[in-house]
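Help wanted!
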Amino acid sequence: MKRFPWKASAKVLSRELAATAALLLGVSLVVFVILYLAPGDPFAALLGGRTLSGAERDAAYEALGIPKTWYGQYLAWVGNVLQGDFGISTRSGQPVAHELISSGGKTLFLTVGSLLVTLGVAIPIAAIAAVRPASRIARSSTLLVYLVSALPTFWLGYMLIYFFTKQLGLFPILSATDENQQLSWLYALLPVVLLGLGNGALSEIVRYLREEISRVMSEEYVRTARAKGASIWRHAYKEALLLPVSQIIAAKMPFVLGGAIIVEQVFNWPGLGRVAWQAAQDRDYPVIMAITLLAAIVVRLGSFFHRTVYVAVNPRASHL
Amino acid sequence: MKFTYRQDVDTVSEYSSFSAWKSARRGDRLSVIYGLVVVCVVLVSYVLGALKWLPHDPEAMDLDAMMAAPFTGSYLLGTDFMGRDMLTRLILGIQAYFLPGLLAVIISLGLGSLLGVLAGYRGGRAEGGVAYFSNLIDSLPRMVLMLLVIAAFRPDIYTIMLVFGITTAPTIAMLVKSKVLMLKERNFIESAVALGLSPAVIIFKHILWYNCRALLLIQATIGMAEAVLLETSLSYLGFGVQEPTPSWGNMVQAGANYLMQGNFWPSTAPAFAIMLTVLGFHLLGDGLNNIFEWKQSR
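Answered by r_m:
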């Protein structure tokens, strides 16, 4: 058996990393341009000043050391961001980085948990639908997935709250800020399940997985394995499960992050989505810029993760 | 002077619609039929709303019949928490997304097929540029980007849908690109090039019209479903259509205040409207895709 091509893989992955950096630079430019074109003077706030106009502004800029040209402002901002300085929130007056760290953990919990729920629901349904496409259970579960995906997340959230807290009395009305209550980890289950089921991508994920699994199952190497009585799972799991799942995690990251905004709104969950909503409401530019950048970084990391799995599973890819 | 290759359209187009429909699976045909019914209902309701041919005044409150159940008196679908006719407001809610959604779909199809043809037909540096643009757009979660744009500009729904159209263009660009790459190898495109037809004719007529129209139609229905979800989500978050103008999103949001008391109807009726519509557009797209696109790619 040939050894794993470490060197070539490292080369491919470092090229991926460079592409990721180039994309993030592009994202920062897009974010900058959108806010540069916005009415008002977002960058005075961002770089620590007040909003002024005309000659007064020029003088204030000079005193604060804010560049006057747009590329100067862009470079100053990117420089600050690279040092972890996202500016001061115009609403709370706190450094944005602090706010992001405290709410970021809650959103991370929500998104990772919801990905697990999504995969936990999607993989069995897709597997059944791929292996026994005509069975009643496959058909009814696929239909159910379609219906759930089409339901608006916010309404589904209210229904969950109603039935679990009001009717069944299982959870108190949710609030992750009540740290001292017992069973506080239980409160998190509803939003996690809601985001896992209702981010709108569930039906797409099931369909994609089903097609991948049934494609791999009809590959010749699987037929060979079946013919000689070897374990199909051992032969097929890499291509039929590992690759599609990492692909889904990479491709659905934006949907999960977007869905988190709505779910956090429904459940009053003090995460990044809620902070982003508040920032959009208050036109809190430093905060919304930082969150957009952070979201883009997470999406790119997901994509990088997929590439890593791809190279690890398929060493041929490192010779392309 | 006329060339003869136009006589047998079937060989220059991948589509042979009627036989594909006849040999389609029953489930796919049902999906398409359900989707078409939904599209018709949405269209008719849109026209009714635009002409103001409504069963009731959308803002007239009937204080004697608040949160009435369906089929109460003249209220076919009941009333909301202020005693306003539900059916009227549901019909008017279509105004909130129909034209903006159409705009988004047109922009995303236009930009997407332009970029796709550019990448597939020219290749080389153009392909690299389009790939970079797509990855760039895909890096920004749509909802987060929307909040950024909302924070910056306080835009109306048309501007939001314009941004939405741009963000969905890369998906279409990638689909068109792979289609163009496949078609470029085919004899009829090669012979069109050899005959000296202008690139515009080859691209618009032979590639986009003869061979990508089903793909684009399918993507249009899926784009419409996503536009409905986006508009209702933004209206739910309070950034889209504002009360008292009805949108299915703000109807769910306003009705949810009464849900804890056990009054489901004010928020459930618009939620079901969203579900049935989104499902209809999705199933239409999926069914058409299974019938006309998926089969030929095997």
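OP: Thanks! One thing I noticed: Chain B is about 70% helix and 0% strand.
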